[in-house]
């Protein structure tokens, strides 16, 4: 019976010999890990989130707000209409056309108001001339 036990022990000894084979396959997944590191270096490229909001009124007043990662950096900064028009022209023609349309409408409103005020000044001058005369 002891001879029968010896083959069982040799069979058990054969089992540990088969375990080194999985250890040979273990280095292959380890080789894949450096590839994952190469991908992670590409992900290290940082992006900056900035949100610039330019708001205009029909009267031609423009202001800017700037957010950096959700935190307000600038609020209500007055911007000249010419600067807004120039910046829009640099970005894209569609943006420029839309903003120039708003600026043109504001210009027309201001010209109409100037004409009204000039007519008012002329009436006041005539009234003064009559009082002096």
Molecular structure report:
This protein has 133 residues and is of the alpha+beta class. Helices cover 68% and strands 17% of the residues. It has 5 helices and 3 strands; from the N terminus they run H-H-H-E-E-E-H-H. A 3-stranded antiparallel sheet has the order 1-2-3. Helix 4 packs antiparallel against helix 5. The longest helix is centred in the last third of the chain and has 40 residues, at 93-132. It is elongated and about 85 Å long. It starts with a helix and ends with a helix. Mean pLDDT is 78; it is low at 7-16. It comes from Saccharopolyspora taberi. Residues 10-29 have a biased composition (Low complexity). Residues 1-44 are annotated as: Disordered. Pfam families: DUF6319.
- Poorly predicted runs: 7-16
* Global structural class: alpha+beta
Helix content class: 55-70%
Going across the major beta sheet, what is the strand order? 1-2-3
Describe the largest sheet: 3 strands, antiparallel
Number of helices: 5
* Overall mean pLDDT: 78
What characteristic shape results from the CA principal axes?
elongated
- Taking the alpha carbons of the first and last residues, their distance comes to 148 Å
**Rg result:** 40 Å
Number of strands: 3
Strand content: 15-25%
- What's the helix-strand series? HHHEEEHH
InterPro entries: DUF6319
Biased composition (Basic residues): 32-44
Biased composition (Low complexity): 10-29
Region (Disordered): 1-44
